[in-house]
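Notes to self after the call with IL:
- keep both proteins in one doc
- input above output, always
- annotate only the second one for now

Protein 1:
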Amino acid sequence: MIQLITQNTNRSNLLWLFVASVGCNPLFAQGGKHQNASEPLKGDNKPLNIVYIMSDDHSYQTISCYDNRFIRTPNIDGIAANGVRFTNSFVANSISGPSRACLLTGKFSHKNGMTTNATRFDSTQVTFPKLLQSAGYQTAIFGKWHLKSEPSGFDRWEILVGQGQYYDPIFITPSGRVTHKGYSTTVITDLTLEWLERERDRERPFCLVIHHKAPHRNWMPDTGEIDLFENITFPVPNTFYDDYRGRPAAAAQEMKIAGDEMDFAFDLKLNSDDIQTRLKENLTFALRRLDSTQRFAWNRVYDSVLNDFKMRDLKGRDLAEWKYQRYMKDYLKCIKSVDDNIGRVMEYLKENNLLENTIVIYTSDQGFYMGEHGWFDKRFMYEESVRTPLVVQLPKGRGEFAKRGDIDLFVQNIDYAPTILELAGVPVPKDIQGVSFVPLLRGERPKDWRKSIYYHYFEYPAEHSVRRHYGVRDDRYKLIKFYGHDIDAWELYDLKIDPNELNNLYEDSRYSKITKRLHTELLRLMKKYDDNQEL
């Protein structure tokens, strides 16, 4: 299934450190459970297997069980249909590396130390894979890592270099770098299935982490599906021409589809000598990875796009909407491949009778803009960015997981680590800030469940120029503070009457009591999570 192209020299010193750190974790004693592990979940005493699948920048708007305007995603929908769909799932920091650190540690960025993509994740700290490994679980991860340090707590791992490449991706392994021929999403799935079929110990429970690169920018599709959506015109969002009135941070960003931020060469694939852009070389590098068959398919579609672009000589709104259509087509082609490959994993689990005792989680590392406010990317605490899809297929053979349908209680990605630990019957460390949502999977509605979420974004100055900010959101209102550098401003939104977050109500005296209440709640959460940012 996997075709190996190259392999570099082993990095013996780093490998030695990796093995030494893993070797310190005690495994199951023969015939029993690690002494520090808690009792398994009620019901069948057989430990649960856990499959955690996460894509990069997959918007909830492009999953058909959430929103059916753009694409059908039958395999992701199937996970929800055989379990639950979370309708209020959020991230703690909407940017790739920090989001992954929140997942691993169950802590906010200011606590796990990974505040921006420029930070290096401290892999010596406690993470849920390490705790599972110490409790006797087999652990494996394939795909995007994006944390600069090497993985720890995994028995088997192959991770993409940085953001990764869509074609013939290069992977880092404990033995060095390897290049696998093929399309990234398919290659990651191939590695996953090979591990499940040939490498795992079938007598032990496992936690398998699958991290897809797609649909991260610049949205390069599998050339076998390159014609998809070419004849479809997608609806332009109502907020596409947002003027950002009353929202200085929204006006100051640099991620507009209509602007130069959406690169004509890199993002829109206009590969021509007379189109020279800031990111042109990135496209050139990516195209070098295509073989002749792939390049023929690529040229057939994108040469036609280039000719159409030149012939039209578009300006103003016509140009902006043409760019939007190209963006949507390419993005959705990547989603189609993600959904197809999730189907391959689910089919394997079914054919091998693993669904009886396996829980499957699908999510994204954050939300993404599908043209809302005229944008692509994420970062802001606005809904499309901070909200993320989360669906969970529950094991068929475990009666305690009777819940089906929607869960509307607030969850965040800091909750994933404690949830996975509880599913495995492993004690949750007291310093984890997230809360296990296993009770929600059982159909419970705890009276003391969170009524609001806290968010903090740190990465500025940086790509897209989104200013630093933090805030609180409850079931109706959202309060955001932008701070530092050139913008110091508060924003307040009533999500019931203004779900698109167009009207900043912070200075509106009619909302003074609500503003005061949210200030109090924000301060409470900052103290609870030990974030010392000044109000």
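Protein 2 (the one to annotate):
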Amino acid sequence: MIGEKTMTMQELRVLYDLSIYNCVHFGSYTEVIYEDQQQTREMTNIQVAQEATQLGAGLRELGIQQGDRVMVMMLNCPEVIISYQAIARAGATIIPVLPLLKGQEIYYIAENSGAKAIITSPQLLPLLQSALVNLSSMQYILSTGIVSSDASPLQSTSAPRLLAYADVITRGAHKADRYLGDLDGMTPNPDDTAVMLYTSGTTGRPKGVLLSHRNLIANAVGGRGPEAELEPHKMEIQLAVLPLAHAFGILVSNLSYLSGVKIIMHPRFDTTAVLAAIERHHIEAFAGVPAMFVALLYSPDADKYDTSSLKYCASGSAPLPVDILLGFEKKFNCPIREGYGLSEASAALTSHGANMVRKPGSVGVPIPGVEIRIVDEHDNPLPTGEVGEVIARGPNIMKGYFNMPAETQAAMRNGWLHTGDMGRFDEDGYLYIVERKKDLIIRGGFNIYPRDVEEVLTSHPAVIEAAVVGVPSERMGEEVKAYVVIRTPVDAETLMVYCREHLANYKTPSQIEFLSALPRNAIGKIDKKELRKYHVN
């Protein structure tokens, strides 16, 4: 069947076309080698496409219809990329969920989105069974790693029905005898929502970023570069350690289809495991967040492994300190290509291309199809060298925020995405990000909004007020620090434990300082700029 088909990047319409393109353009090859402490599994690109089609048909058999929403919450594994393709094939919307989140965070996403199903793994089942009970919109939990005898209705009649992932595959197999083409004649529109990514909002309410098939395809093709299709194909071996529920991880995964790379996938980032994999598989490239490069740079085990196969790395999701970039490049003899983007841009706006002059401290130039301006507070363009807000437009920019028209209008003024980030262009058109959003904390590549943490702290009976800021961290980029006013005695460790019970661990403050009063400005608003001056390294 493959030999009878052709497809170019210009013909890509919807998300699952990436998998079809990969099979047609590169033929059969080992696409994924998955490694964890218990097992190693291999899958070809054909097997990935076939299983995705079977799972997509199985979801349709369960009643998942075009426009429905399906959550995916797992550590990195082949089933994540299979599930994404399958949900797209069913015409539904993918909702990636970080497996770090806690029960109340998961419940909010499920309730707000009205998701009908979630695909997960056994280690997360107890959390999900507890979090999703009494949620009428959630009908099914599909879990890998369980058998039919385990997949029985949960104890509560109001709980979603538990199904074995493998059984849904089997259910769909008889209707999915081909891996190419659309299921049941159903063809999604390129402007339909393919992915809804939840990111914390400045108001404290997580926002669902609506990304269409067209958005995601445009960003992948733009990130790959249209001329790449004409180049001779040489299979590259890449390491996949970015969370596949993260906007950056999704982009890198989509790019891999277009590049025809072999992926060595790990469930999570572990410094020793990464170094060992680089030596064992002769890995040539990987994408990471700054915290990963810091960990590798300062790892005492780095010299024990042969990492000479590395040709380049890509960094995104948070600013990479120049000292870390230069130190990593010297130690590993491997350049880092830094880029910039955000979930609302599917996720890349700029990059350092393979043949570009690299400028440490810069995030490169706009990718093909993307236009970026630096503007003042009145949206007037600023000249080269001057600092202003970064705004962008292009085919990769989101449709808007789910059920948040006011927030959408504010972010998409005059047809431009207002990032809230401050930056400048140099004379060669390279972008430099000068400041991040006013209160946004980026710890290890994950976005944290202070109000999420403040709400939890102030819910503790001993706390009167709390204010949270980001403080510099060489290892993580930023750490979360909380300033707290209390009414009854409580120690910092008790409050940290309380936060960990209600928030993902990465959002929990690493430092808590007690004050008799919080600083305020003339109108009584807490002065976070002044608070940041309190911090002593």
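Annotation: The mean pLDDT is 90. The chain has three domains: 44-188, 228-435, 441-534.
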